[in-house]
Design a protein that fits this description.
5-stranded antiparallel β-sheet, chromosomal protein mc1
């Protein structure tokens, strides 16, 4: 049980994939595919608000696996919180994702 617990707490690497199956080199880490997808979403071109954000497809393949996690992601700019640290800019990029499906590479 302890070994399984440790594996669940480890960060995993997910490669960003294009729709044609290329992996241009962007890798996002997270304990779950969703956590990595949220990081990828924050790299999208941000809209002025969440309501005006358009979705983009985000495809992530876990390194060493043949499954591709497919999300709709969007990003927007928002004012930083009042208690922000000094190094943080006034405007920050936020992101969100919605899982669409999981595909196996041999099915794509």
């Amino acid at each position: 049980m302890e070994g399984q617990e440790m594996a669940e707490n480890e960060e995993r690497n997910f490669a960003l994939r294009t729709t044609d199956g290329e992996e241009p080199g962007s890798v996002f880490t997270g304990k779950t595919p969703r956590q990595a997808a949220l990081k990828a979403a924050r790299r999208l071109e941000p809209a002025p608000s969440e309501e005006r954000a358009e979705t983009e497809e985000i495809r992530l393949r876990e390194k060493g696996e043949h499954k591709v996690h497919i999300y709709e992601g969007w990003a927007w700019e928002e004012e930083a919180p009042e208690d922000k640290p000094n190094w943080m800019p006034e405007e920050i990029t936020k992101g969100n994702v919605s899982k669409q499906s999981v595909a196996h590479i041999d099915e794509i």
